[in-house]
Amino acid sequence: MLRIASNANKISRVLSTPIFLQSERLIVSNVEEIQHPHSSFLSQNQRKFSAKVSNALGISNGVTSNGQNLGYNSLNHRACYTTESTTEDVAATEEVKEIYDKMYKSITEGRTMPPNVWTWSFIYKCSNLEDIKLLFQMLASVRIFRLSNLRISSNFNDHLCLKVVEACTRVGAIDYGKKTLWKHNAYGLTPLIGSAHRLLRGSAQLLGSVRLQMYAKKQKDVALMEDIMKLLKENHLPLQSGTADLLFSTCYETDNWELLMKYSKKFLKSGMKLRLTTLGTWMEFASKRGDMEYLWKIEKMRSDITDKHNLASAFSCAKGFLLESKPESAAAIIHVLNQVMIISQW
């Protein structure tokens, strides 16, 4: 009798929940990076300025005074065009070079702050890794100029920081994008949880459907995700429900149940309210594994958080009933789902 009552409660809870036709899954990927040197195009005077800027930052050979390795020759304004995300040798675009030169002359010769429109144009015109390298070099030099000449110690505004991350993901410069999450960086960029989300979403778009076909790429997705989570923790950035959405989706796509469970415990422990899309992904994963115990635990959690269903959660419940040899209950859910779809078409 207790078992019958439990099943009845389970069915009533599922069927009494509105079903919304939405199903979103966010995935992430990573980009393999290859380093090889290239030539410079700027003058000896620019190299002298580079030395002054490096001294101002306390940087020597890419290492700060506190021992932090910046991973590149910090403010060397010799433009070394290299490629990290592709195997082809791609130079910086002419338009970006021109903007870089104008901004550089404004700082070194005119001793004036470059117009904001140049900075925005610089960001939007970046189309390869070499453009991104020049962008980060210029951001660092503009930050120094603001600090030393204008006495402005604050970072650039958040909107600009987010657009820099978007530019990085657009061209596949994932490692440069991760630098925007550093709490202490030489570029005047404020670490934002939104930047982490853009980095994860943008990297997914880089490889498209190819990432779903390659096991090695899936492993890099997980590595990138864990790397970003580590950066968030080190730089004291708060986790959000959108972060959980991204993490759960990546774990689902890479078939990594253990990692999903690891992060789910952290999110639940923090008291965060998970989104319906996140719960749907979690339920879909549990039903895919045939783990009925966890499926119904997550379903109970969903019913406590929201009175809504989406396609993933509804189909997962139907699948769960089928796996438990309860076709009538599964059919009832599909019938309700079908009615919702018919209504939505009107």
How would you describe this structure to a colleague?
The protein is mostly helical. It has a domain at 91-203. The protein is 62% helix and 2% strand. The protein has 15 helices and four strands. It has a two-stranded parallel sheet with strand order 1-4. Strands 2-3 form a two-stranded antiparallel ribbon. α3 runs antiparallel to α4. The two termini are 43 Å apart.
Itemize the secondary structure elements and their pairings.
Layout: H1 2-15, E1 19-20, H2 44-57, E2 59-60, E3 63-64, H3 94-108, H4 116-125, H5 129-148, H6 158-171, H7 174-179, H8 193-207, H9 215-234, H10 241-253, H11 257-269, H12 276-289, H13 292-305, E4 309-310, H14 311-323, H15 327-345
Parallel strand pairs: 1-4
Antiparallel strand pairs: 2-3
Helix pairs in contact: 3-4, 3-5, 6-8, 9-10, 10-11, 10-12, 12-13, 12-14, 13-14, 14-15
Strand proportion, as a percent range, falls in: under 5%
Number of helices: 15
* Spatial shape: elongated
Task: Work out the number of β strands.
Answer: 4
Largest sheet: 2 strands, parallel
Q: How far apart are the termini?
A: 43 Å
Q: Which percent bin holds the helix content?
A: 55-70%
Order of helices and strands: HEHEEHHHHHHHHHHHEHH
Quaternary structure classification: single chain
Kindly report the spatial arrangement of strands forming the biggest sheet. Answer: 1-4
Let me know the average pLDDT.
75
Stretches where pLDDT is under 50 for at least 5 consecutive residues are 21-88, 206-217
Protein name: Pentacotripeptide-repeat region of PRORP domain-containing protein
Organism: Papaver somniferum (Opium poppy)
